[in-house]
Amino acid sequence: MEKTGFGFWEYVRSILTIIVFFITFLIFTPIILFLLLVSFGKASNLVVERIAPLMVRPAFWMSGIRFNVKYHTDSLTSPAVFIINHSSTLDVLTLLALGLPKIRFVAKWEFQYNPIFLILGRLTGQIFIKRQKSDKAIETLKKTHRRIHRDELSIMMAPEGSRKHPGIIGPFKKGPFRMAMDLNYPIVPIYFEGNRQLSKGGTMITKSGELTAHIHDAIDTSDWSLENLEEHIIEVRNHYLEWGGVENDDVEPIA
Predict the structure, then answer these.
(1) Is the pLDDT higher at 46 or at 109?
(2) Where exactly are the structural domains of the chain?
(3) CATH code 3.40.1130 for 8-243
(4) DSSP states of the chain as a string?
(5) What global pTM score does this model have?
């Protein structure tokens, strides 16, 4: 039976988890900066694929969370545009824990207000966009196309844009799908199971339990066009509704 609410010890453990995460982050930051500087930024893939997953392990251990990755595909397609369902602050940890090859994250502009995130994000080639201004966001994404193609990078995006949305699966924005079309990349859906149930959403207060990242088959976008784009977006979102066990959804599918 699923627990509701948070008990005293869950708050205590969550506070300890936050402390452990930030201590771990501070320990690894100079190591990452050193690697990036001496390699002239070429260690970025090492950071996101190997070091980032190591950084979140102590936080998972302290919070009593077991993180699993389940593949529903024979092979991981890369490069690609990876998409996730976004409903919890825990998503940040599970994204880092995945350690996907040559991945770059599309994050909200406000993350750069933290100087450490700003420096590490810029040095590792992460992409920061202003989500409230869709035209500016698309323009920023287009500017990265050449670098992404040149370095054969994959992109991680959340079609819902924000964890604050109506329903279990919120409306999907067009940005990730337009980017997949422009890059001629397939889309790889990842469904996070458990994040919403274990976390309150806007904080790192969590319950102990199990989180699973379900990685599904790549979706070919070679025959997509502006004319049939919305149809394909609705189709992809319907997969997420199915994985989330949503039978009746009255949320507008596209924002």
Answers:
(1) 46
(2) 8-243
(3) yes
(4) ----S--HHHHHHHHHHHHHHHHHHHHHHHHHHHHHHHTTTTTHHHIIIIIHHHHHHHHHHHHTEEEEEEE-SSS---S-EEEE---STHHHHHHHHH--TTEEEEEEGGGGGSHHHHHHHHHTT-EEE-TT-HHHHHHHHHHTHHHHHHHT-EEEE-TT-SS--SSSS-PBPSHHHHHHHHHT--EEEEEEESHHHHB-SSSS-B-SEEEEEEE---B--TT--TTTHHHHHHHHHHHHHHHTT-S---S-SB-
(5) 0.89
